Amino acid sequence: MIAEAQRLESVQEYYFSKKLQEIANMKTDIPIISLGIGSPDLQPHPDVIAALIKNSQSGINGYQSYRGIPEMREAMANFYKNKFHVTANPTTEILPLMGSKEGIMHISMAFLNEGDKVLIPNPGYPTYSSVTELVQAEPLFYDLKDENNWLPDFEQLEKLAEQKPKIMWLNYPHMPTGAKASKDVLRKIVEFATRHNILIVNDNPYSFILNDEPTSILAIDGAKEVCIELNSLSKTFNIAGWRVGMVIGKEAFINAILKVKSNMDSGMNFAIQKAATKALLVDDSWYDELTKVYAERRKVIWEIADILNVNYNPDATGMFIWAKLPDGKDDKEFIDEILHDKKVFITPGSIFGSNGEGFIRFSLCAPLEKLIEVKKRVEA
Which residues does UniProt call coiled coil (predicted)? Predict the structure, then answer.
């Protein structure tokens, strides 16, 4: 028998990969409604679809530049300038990615050696820790807790810094909790990274979902020396399956990531790049309409949460509702009970880390009529 690589010993199949297969195999008398994954169900802007169709028929089907077409990089730079007040050179400081999840692997491969320490939020996106394990670095989990509004404990970070971590994964607005970090908090993080020579990677795909104050860590003075930022068009522009993201930072950081990326893919599809460029140019009415739709859905999710007797923060942002179960309730047992009894899938908080135990996460990525049906089922 041919043995798998040792690096896989500490890595499990992604939770949603297994759970969705389990759900697909269930035999039910009514359709299962998923409120689990944050996969936007809304359509992209009509101009974006038109650009995709037009450029799919252009005859340009060959390999593309690893850096992306200049037009898209210019649009990304203008997007950051207009929305975050961050100036970035589109030629040297922006690198398009086939989704920011790809970027997590590329960044880790570009900067981490075997045994390097990595600061990872608990709770947080599971891919941060799994990719850290895959490159054979060592995760150092830093606590985010309800009583601290899901913000870092800087005393704990200083103690962890004694182990000389090389990278710190950051994610605000935070997934799964929806917590926001103020500019003062981001400033403290930049100062922490500067003191300890740590590369901060802020993963920032949720800034425009139910959030009045989009923020980039790169807007903080001195951030470019120790920070890079991942972003994605998936959530904001409803093109998750198209796989369009970006990483922004100073030229030396971008060049290191490009060394990995250029050996891993052959450039993004031309038509998708042109359509993504169009998405980045939509006017403010797009964001207003997005907010309106998600706000209406969120209201129904709050009503469902009330029926289930779980507590949530009405000031949280993003496309998820993070809710606390009554004391003593096991989150995985709770969601399995709802799945089998009500045919509704909700995500257990513990998959995001030990600090997520006793919490559940609802996705807003379902049409209003399905959310109303979920409400009826849980009321029954």
Answer: none
How many whole angstroms separate alpha carbon 298 and alpha carbon 314? 9
Please provide residue 64's backbone torsions phi and psi, each rounded to the nearest 5 degrees.
-115, 170
123 has pLDDT over 80? yes
How do residues 179-194 score in pLDDT, each as one tens digit? 999 999 999 999 999 9
Q: Is 271:56 a contact under the CB 8 Å cutoff?
A: yes
pLDDT at 16: 65
**What per-residue confidence (pLDDT) applies to 238?**
85
C-alpha 252/C-alpha 227 separation (Å) is: 12
Whole-angstrom Cα distance, residue 359 to residue 352? 10
Cα–Cα distance for residue pair 162/159, rounded to 1 Å: 6
Pairing of strands 167-170, 117-122: parallel
101 vs 198 pLDDT, higher one: 198
Contacts 24+ apart (CB under 8 A), 156-159: 157/119, 157/192, 158/192
Q: How far apart are CA 152 and CA 144, in angstroms?
A: 6
Distance CA 282, CA 187 (A): 30
Q: Which residues contact 379 (CB under 8 A, 6 or more apart)?
A: 307
Q: Which helix (H) or strand (E) holds 344?
A: strand 344-348
CA distances from 41 to 100, 293, 342, 368 (A): 19, 11, 22, 11
Whether the CA torsion 329, 333, 335, 337 is positive or negative: it is negative
Yes or no: say if 134 and 7 are a contact pair by the CB < 8 Å rule. Answer: yes
Eight-class DSSP state of 144: B
Classify residue 131 by its DSSP letter. Answer: H
35 closest CA partner among 247, 322, 295: 322
* Cα-based torsion angle of the residue sequence 370, 372, 375, 380 in order, rounded to the nearest 10 degrees: -100
| Tokens 């790049």 belong to residue | 273
